[in-house]
């Protein structure tokens, strides 16, 4: 069961003793779909990685850098073309599908919290876990704006444009703390867009070798490294049994 948060039009609180929130790109998927588009159809991997270094050093913010990266893609590929590319080339972490349906059986809500765009996410999910599941899974993300009728000129619309993150993922977690009976919160992520959420979960899972791991290490934020959702299923099951 889900309940709209009072005073908010876009935050959904999931009820139950446990709630699992997760980044999408590079966490649930094996590759970051936005990075994939940027590297192959935008500014290229080298330029993207240079901007990522600047973000981690706090010399530029994620929102502005990410907008610049995606506008480079939109100059050469329509939104529809991008969607077809991602449906063709992006795959799930091998353990996610099993984890997702196991969590559903255990009545653990799974919420995707992404700095990507909802249409891209649902499109890839419809191919990989089925259209019905893709329609019903909760996604808190940015969106897209079209500047023409054909979808050739498109740009990202940030959920929190006032934030340097564009989408401040902590806002998907912190409202749970105000509940009379707050659930145990799990969060998994991999990159710089997850920094705002990292310190607020009860149990944080970080994909090994990625930027979020560097950030958590530097900030002394406790986390559990993972390389597959099969690992996460084991960890979550252990927490539930305590």
Would you write up a description of this structure?
This protein is α/β, with parallel strands linked by helices. The chain has a single domain (2-31, 92-241), classed as Rossmann fold (3-Layer(aba) Sandwich), CATH 3.40.50.1000. It has 11 helices and 9 strands. A 7-stranded mixed sheet has the order 6-5-4-3-7-8-9, sandwiched between helices. It has a two-stranded antiparallel ribbon with strand order 1-2. Helix 9 links the parallel strand 7 and strand 8 (203-207).
Radius of gyration: 17 Å
CATH superfamily: HAD superfamily/HAD-like
Helix content: 40-55%
As an assembly, this protein is single chain
Summing up helix and strand content along with how strands pair, one would put the structural category as alpha/beta
CATH architecture: 3-Layer(aba) Sandwich
Strand content: 15-25%
Mean pLDDT equals 89
The CATH class name reads Alpha Beta
Give the overall silhouette: globular
**What is the H/E order?**
EEEHHHHHEHHEEHEHEHEH
Strand arrangement within the widest β-sheet reads: 6-5-4-3-7-8-9
How many discrete domains? 1
Number of helices: 11
**Largest beta-sheet characterization:** 7 strands, mixed
Distance between the termini: 24 Å
Q: Count all strands and give the number.
A: 9
Low-confidence region ranges: 1-9
Q: Looking at CATH, which topology would you report?
A: Rossmann fold
InterPro entries: HAD-like_hydrolase_phosphatase (IPR050849), HAD-like_sf (IPR036412), HAD_hydro_PyrdxlP_Pase-like (IPR006384), HAD_sf (IPR023214)
Protein name: Pdp3-interacting factor 1
GO molecular function, one term: phosphatase activity
Keywords: Hydrolase
